[in-house]
Amino acid sequence: MPIMRVGGQASCSKWCVDENVFPGRKYYPVYCAGLAFALSIDLVAELYSAAMRTPTFWIDDVFVTGVLLAQIQGVHRVSLNVFYSWRFQLVMQEYLRHNATVKHRIVHVPAISHIERMWNCLLRHKLSRGALLSLADGVVTNVPPCQ
């Protein structure tokens, strides 16, 4: 991803970076961009250690998954973009087709009221495909419709 410099792009607004940050570089280090990232628990202590000896950078994606992870040997990044969708209705249609394979497992839910609806569809989809879902000390059998 190219670094947007102050004075370089008229429309970079809050994403502009001064020349003294990453001097001489046109691109950020390799990093994971997005709303969230997952990492294995064994990386937490190493990330903390790297953060304690590294000047902070305010774009958290770049800092945590780029600058800090670059200091840790053997880190392997995996893109989850193929499982993600901004299109809530598309994902709902996948779950409503009970016999279809669900491609999207990460979805942007536009309103809190949609979360229960999405959850019910997920449970219905799993149950229709023969999955046994257990919650706490019981088995899920009575799942409301997800229409």
Automatic annotation (TrEMBL):
<keyword id="KW-0735">Signal-anchor</keyword>
<keyword id="KW-0812">Transmembrane</keyword>
<keyword id="KW-0472">Membrane</keyword>
<keyword id="KW-0808">Transferase</keyword>
<keyword id="KW-0333">Golgi apparatus</keyword>
<keyword id="KW-0328">Glycosyltransferase</keyword>
<dbReference type="GO" id="GO:0000139">
    <property type="term" value="C:Golgi membrane"/>
</dbReference>
<dbReference type="Pfam" id="PF01762">
    <property type="entry name" value="Galactosyl_T"/>
</dbReference>
<protein>
    <recommendedName>
        <fullName>Hexosyltransferase</fullName>
        <ecNumber>2.4.1.-</ecNumber>
    </recommendedName>
</protein>
<comment type="similarity">
    <text>Belongs to the glycosyltransferase 31 family.</text>
</comment>
<dbReference type="GO" id="GO:0016758">
    <property type="term" value="F:hexosyltransferase activity"/>
</dbReference>
<keyword id="KW-1133">Transmembrane helix</keyword>
<dbReference type="InterPro" id="IPR002659">
    <property type="entry name" value="Glyco_trans_31"/>
</dbReference>
<dbReference type="GO" id="GO:0006493">
    <property type="term" value="P:protein O-linked glycosylation"/>
</dbReference>
